[in-house]
Design a protein that fits this description.
Layout (H helix, E strand, L loop, with lengths): L19 E2 L9 E2 L7 H12 L9 E5 L3 H12 L2 E7 L7 E7 L5 E7 L8 E9 L3 H12 L3 E10 L3 H9 L2 E2 L7 H4 L4
Parallel strand pairs: 3-4, 3-7, 7-8, 8-9
Antiparallel strand pairs: 1-2, 4-6, 5-6
Helix pairs in contact: 1-2
Length: about 190
């Protein structure tokens, strides 16, 4: 799809056609949404679709997960007129942090961190990432927020795969993603 083309009718998820499959091998995610972010209307509609289920919900801050979750998270925070918190891979913050180990979509063991002075007890956080494959990264972010006394107001991602971890998140938290139900099987790679 051309980066300037906007379809006459824009159903939820129309912008998913802008994404490209992985051509670099198993150490990369299987699908790359970064081209979607280059499309003005595609990005706007994606963010609107992610935020629609949370309209009227109390949200105090948006947190984006390192690294691609920063793009959608910051766009969501700006749309909601809320602050933005970066949840980082360990070693990137030069302030006091809380750390949480996790396994990412490729099975690699990693550590995530968040600054300890940004979340106060009861603060309602909307967690945003680009994609939830196996759920390990998002679950680590959830644990960090909750360990600091924050409340997970919701989880938003372009896709939350129907994996064991994706189901665990959907069963416990209000979630939003952009994949229409009839297309979900085509987006599940980590079952």
């Amino acid at each position: 799809m051309d980066l300037c083309h906007v379809p006459a009718t824009r159903e939820k998820g129309w912008y998913l056609a802008l994404m490209a499959p992985n051509v670099k091998g198993p150490n990369y995610a299987w699908l790359d949404p970064s081209r979607l972010y280059c499309h003005t209307q595609g990005l706007q509609d994606c963010v609107a679709d992610l935020l629609q289920p949370f309209q009227g919900d109390p949200i105090d801050m948006v947190a984006g997960i390192d690294a691609m979750g920063f793009i959608l998270g910051a766009a969501a925070a700006a749309t909601l007129r809320k602050g933005f918190l970066a949840i980082r891979k360990a070693g990137h913050l030069c302030v006091q942090t809380l750390e949480q180990p996790y396994s990412d979509y490729s099975g690699r063991e990693k550590v995530m961190e968040v600054r300890t002075d940004a979340i106060s007890p009861g603060l309602r956080i909307l967690l945003v990432d680009q994609w939830v494959e196996t759920g390990g990264t998002m679950r680590a972010a959830i644990q960090l927020v909750e360990r600091l006394g924050g409340v997970v107001a919701g989880v938003a991602a372009i896709c939350i795969e129907d994996s064991e971890g994706g189901r665990w998140i959907r069963e416990r938290y209000k979630c939003a993603h952009c994949v229409p139900p009839h297309l979900q099987p085509r987006f599940n790679r980590h079952q």
